[in-house]
């Protein structure tokens, strides 16, 4: 029993390491060859996990070879457009100017029910509202509504908008995010001053605290308390 437990832990760790080595896309939208490799990793890890008669290295070595093949295929895809098309395929336009490309759907083995479901997921009710819909190589459909059906933007209204970037997370689960604080040019004493102003004497009482590109510091507490905000920086001081 202990041997099975140890083998299971080791093989799971090796499988996680293999997936991490192959990049973040492995847990997102997979290309066809990546899906095949992900299935093979699961099979290679599970076989020696359940059978003590199979040496542990019979599972670890094929896992490492699979990772090496993935890296090779990825490198070849980066160097050659033809090999990229072979491994991953090409995007296909399935709707153009509200017209469904039935031949393309047949070639992709994609039925109308699936197409309508993807359109609804993209916030479009009918194909006639679609300017362009593209089946990506990952199998996901990108939907672009006609210009008459898309939401109005500030550019359409001739409005000038300011810079809007990613907020800096300064505290998470009561712990200071030391790598983010220097990005805004401030120190821990500055942060604690604003936290105390909002009623937090300890950083451990803060569930989440972030600074947006408007210079507004938002703090979420544990429990049902509403988030609190304070203007901690001038907008022209934002540098990240």
Task: Describe, in short, the structure shown.
Helices cover 42% and strands 17% of the residues.
**What is the radius of gyration?**
25 Å
What sequence of helices (H) and strands (E) makes up the elements?
HHHHEEHHEEHEEHEEE
Strands, count = 9
Strand content: 15-25%
Order of strands, main sheet, comes to 6-5-7-8-9
Biggest sheet details: 5 strands, antiparallel
Shape, per Cα inertia axes: flat
Low-pLDDT segments: none
Q: What count of helical segments does DSSP give?
A: 8
| Mean pLDDT reading | 85
Structural class: alpha+beta
Question: Fraction of residues in helices?
Answer: 40-55%
Distance between the amino and carboxyl termini: 53 Å
What does this protein look like?
Helix content is 42%, strand content 17%. The protein has helices at residues 2-21, 32-50, 57-79, 81-88, 102-108, 112-121, 154-157, 188-197, and strands at 92-96, 99-100, 130-135, 141-145, 168-172, 175-176, 206-211, 216-221, 228-231. The strands form two sheets. It has a five-stranded antiparallel beta sheet, covered by helices on one side. The chain has a four-stranded antiparallel beta sheet with strand order 2-1-3-4. β1 (92-96) and β2 form a beta hairpin. The longest helix has 23 residues, at 57-79.
């Amino acid at each position: 029993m202990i041997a099975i437990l140890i083998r299971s832990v080791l093989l799971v760790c090796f499988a996680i390491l293999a997936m991490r080595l192959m990049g973040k896309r492995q847990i997102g939208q997979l290309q066809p060859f990546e899906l095949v490799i992900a299935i093979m990793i699961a099979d290679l890890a599970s076989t020696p996990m359940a059978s003590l008669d199979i040496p542990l290295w019979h599972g670890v070595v094929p896992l490492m070879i699979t990772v090496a093949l993935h890296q090779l295929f990825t490198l070849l895809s980066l160097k050659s457009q033809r090999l990229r098309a072979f491994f991953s395929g090409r995007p296909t336009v399935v709707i153009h100017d509200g017209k469904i490309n039935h031949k393309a759907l047949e070639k992709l083995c994609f039925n109308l029910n699936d197409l309508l479901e993807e359109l609804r997921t993209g916030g479009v009710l009918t194909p006639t509202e679609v300017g362009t819909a593209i089946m990506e190589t990952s199998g996901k459909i990108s939907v672009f509504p006609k210009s008459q059906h898309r939401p109005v933007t500030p550019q359409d209204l001739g409005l000038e908008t300011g810079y809007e970037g990613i907020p800096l997370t300064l505290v998470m689960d009561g712990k200071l995010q030391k790598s983010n604080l220097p990005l805004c040019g401030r120190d821990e004493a500055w942060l604690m001053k604003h936290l105390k102003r909002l009623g937090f004497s300890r950083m451990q009482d803060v569930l989440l605290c972030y600074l947006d590109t408007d210079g507004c510091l938002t703090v979420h507490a544990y429990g049902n308390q509403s988030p609190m905000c304070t203007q901690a920086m001038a907008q022209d001081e934002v540098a990240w």
